[in-house]
């Protein structure tokens, strides 16, 4: 009588499960390294705070008739854009100098997984800096002034803008890391591509701060543009990252 054979059960994780494990491992590595050195968050935070001080000096002679709320959204996003460039450049340069980037390329990790993991890490660091900057900015410029819109709109606008900055910035930082003028190349590529997102994010944040007639409609229409930008540009970065990181 023939023996019944039990089919072999594969213990290897599925593709999605393996990619998720790799994603978590890369993000955890970036966060642990940052917790040890505190280089990127510290440099970004100090840069953002110094930017607030410069704003304070520049606007100190504006007079009492000037309302900082009128330009608060633009000032905030200007600080975030330039601060994010500093952090994005440092994150990839640090990886390259320590050989981590080459190790990732030699390991059996899908290139899109590397992109999303690096973008997620950059997003976390940018959100931390935003969280530290907002109270300082409110104390320096908005103290004693009422908000015309809803406060919950501000974090939503900041999150939407930060996602686009982290995604596109990760792709551009990877492109510029092997060039001689890393900072200059990143700025030349980053600022023009951020222009549509910056317009929409400033409009949404301004609606949340100022309020006024139709501010809810302005906020959601601007957030729709932010979401469209994030989806389109993240999709493009996802498609191009394998070619960029292997170049």
Please render the helix and strand layout as text.
Elements lengths: L14 H23 L1 H20 L13 H26 L2 H7 L4 H31 L11 H24 L5 H29 L4 H31 L2
Summarize this structure as a short list of keywords or feature phrases.
247 residues, 8 helices, globular
Description:
- The chain is mainly alpha-helical and about 250 residues long.
- It has one domain.
- Helix content is about 75%, strand content about 0%.
- The protein has helices at about 15-35, 40-60, 70-95, 100-105, 110-140, 155-175, 180-210, 215-245.
- Helix 2 (about 40-60) runs antiparallel to helix 3 (about 70-95) and helix 6 packs parallel to helix 8.
- The protein is globular.
Précis, in short:
By secondary structure, this protein is mostly helical.
């Amino acid at each position: 009588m023939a023996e019944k054979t039990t089919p072999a059960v594969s213990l290897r994780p599925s593709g999605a499960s393996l990619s998720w494990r790799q994603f978590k491992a890369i993000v955890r590595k970036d966060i642990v390294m940052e917790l040890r050195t505190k280089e990127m968050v510290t440099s970004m935070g100090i840069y953002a705070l110094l930017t607030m001080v410069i704003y304070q000096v520049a606007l100190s002679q504006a007079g009492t008739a000037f309302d900082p709320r009128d330009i608060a959204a633009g000032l905030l996003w200007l600080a975030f854009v330039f601060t994010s460039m500093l952090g994005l450049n440092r994150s990839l340069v640090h990886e390259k100098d320590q050989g981590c980037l080459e190790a990732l390329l030699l390991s059996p990790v899908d290139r899109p997984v590397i992109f999303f993991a690096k973008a997620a890490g950059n997003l976390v660091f940018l959100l931390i800096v935003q969280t530290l900057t907002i109270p300082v900015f409110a104390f320096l410029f908005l103290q004693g002034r009422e908000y015309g819109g809803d406060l919950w709109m501000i974090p939503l606008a900041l999150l939407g803008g930060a996602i686009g900055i982290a995604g596109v910035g990760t792709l551009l930082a990877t492109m510029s890391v092997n060039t001689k003028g890393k900072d200059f190349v990143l700025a030349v590529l980053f600022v023009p591509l951020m222009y549509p997102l910056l317009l929409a994010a400033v409009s949404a944040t301004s609606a949340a701060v100022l309020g006024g007639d139709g501010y809810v409609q302005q906020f959601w229409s601007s957030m729709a543009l932010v979401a469209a930008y994030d989806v389109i540009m993240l999709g493009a970065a996802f498609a191009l990252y394998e070619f960029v990181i292997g170049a």
